[in-house]
Amino acid sequence: MEAGLDLITRLAPDKQGRRQRTTAHAWVSDQADSGVIGIVGLTLSAPDALLDAAADADLPFVMIDPVDTHHRRMVSVCLSNWAGARAATDHLIGLGHRRLGWIGGPEASIAARDRLYGYRAALYAAHL
């Protein structure tokens, strides 16, 4: 607020569109034309064309928990998914629950796999 900036939530193009350079460039251009000064992508799969388009437009782009990219220019922030899943599962076990289910994210997601491994580690430690 002190800087006079607003946080705006917008949907990125669908996965098919994110893979097409022309769609990605058009979307990024629309963001820049509307006054956007940076983009934060939250767990986007197939973001490479968007990352390229943002770089071409000189628009900062940060990914949170990237799914299926190892883009050389990507700046990302990753959460401690393993520790979070382990703590959540330990908490449920501590409450006396012994039959726990798992609903995970896409297999291509490193974050989803880390959460699964944290969950499994807690079950293993509790001999469940």
Description:
By secondary structure, the chain is mainly α. The protein folds into two domains: 15-77, no CATH class; 81-125. Helices cover 44% and strands 9% of the residues. It is built from five helices and three strands. The protein has helices at residues 15-18, 21-33, 48-56, 81-94, 110-125; strands at 39-42, 61-64, 75-77. It has a three-stranded parallel beta sheet with strand order 1-2-3. Helix 2 crosses helix 3 (48-56) and helix 4 (81-94) packs parallel to helix 5 (110-125). The longest helix is centred in the C-terminal third of the chain and has 16 residues, at 110-125. It is elongated and about 55 Å long. 22% of the residues are buried.
